[in-house]
Specification:
Layout (H helix, E strand, L loop, with lengths): L9 E2 L3 E5 L6 H10 L4 E2 L3 E2 L14 E2 L2 H9 L3 E7 L2 E6 H9 L4 E4 L2 H10 L4 E7 L3 H11 L4 H15 L7 E4 L3 H16 L5 E2 L1 H10 L4
Parallel strand pairs: 2-8, 2-9, 3-8, 4-5, 9-10
Antiparallel strand pairs: 1-11, 4-7, 6-7
The chain binds guanosine-5'-monophosphate.
The site of guanosine-5'-monophosphate (5GP) has 16 residues, from strand 6, strand 7 and helix 4.
């Protein structure tokens, strides 16, 4: 029996980047995608202190400044940035491995990192900016989370204004009023981007086969 010709159409993995000010819900959205096995989460390294609810290796790799600088100097980071006074960076190797296997990689990084990844891998990057429905709601979400000290929350709110101005640099924008609806929007973006002609590998052979098919 001949192999299904459709199965020979493959695709390159996407780099799906979500950015937003802290508290807009992007972390929940990225994690929901990963739970549905729609992508592999890029686990960043950071020098910020671990929050009580966070798990080493799952939310971040928590490292000290010296180790961070050593990784950066050895070119082990695809991108890095200083955010709210701490260093954050994306380890390069897992990204290369995931993309080569044809799976999508999901990133929860800021606009500075987004720029760097876009510059390095322009064909594979899809960017989504998540906005809160209002500033009041953003503040309430940060306070409800209650995992950061009040001065940290104040700093994040001040930075949120600067970060939100970056929405113009992104391919898509989701206003996260309702988490379920936002997640459906995110999945729609991913589905459409996966189907882009340029991302499909082996398509010309498939179409050639279609055209050569003999009908009885
Ligand atoms: P948080 O401390 O709330 O986990 O993250 C603070 C900010 O740092 C968020 O905007 C998050 O997207 C960003 N961030 C997390 N990891 C990285 C990373 O590896 N690189 C960059 N550039 N930003 C990151």
């Amino acid at each position: 029996m001949s192999q299904d010709p459709k199965s020979q159409v493959g695709r390159r993995g996407l780099i799906l980047i979500l950015s937003s000010p802290s508290g807009a819900g992007k972390t929940t959205l990225t994690r929901s995608l990963v739970e549905e096995r729609a992508g592999v989460l890029s686990v960043s390294v950071t020098t910020r202190p671990k929050r009580p609810s966070e798990i080493e290796g799952r939310h971040y790799h928590f490292i000290d400044v010296e180790e961070f600088k050593a990784m950066r100097d050895r070119d082990e980071l695809l991108e890095w940035a200083e955010v709210h006074g701490n260093f954050y960076g994306t380890p390069r190797k897992p990204v290369e491995k995931t993309l080569a296997s044809g799976q999508d990689m999901v990133f929860d990084i800021d606009y500075q990192g987004t720029r760097q990844v876009r510059q390095k891998l322009p064909d594979d990057v899809v960017t989504v900016f998540v906005l809160p429905p209002s500033f009041k709601e953003l503040k309430a979400r940060l306070e409800r989370r209650a995992e950061d000290a009040p001065d940290v929350i104040a700093k994040r709110l001040a930075n949120a204004r600067i970060e939100m101005e970056r929405w113009v640099e992104y391919d898509y924008v989701i206003v996260n009023e309702d988490l379920d609806r936002s997640f459906q929007s995110l999945k729609a973006i991913q589905t459409a981007e996966r189907l882009k002609r340029d991302r499909l590998v082996g398509l010309s052979d498939f179409v050639e086969g279609l055209l050569a098919e003999k009908l009885d």
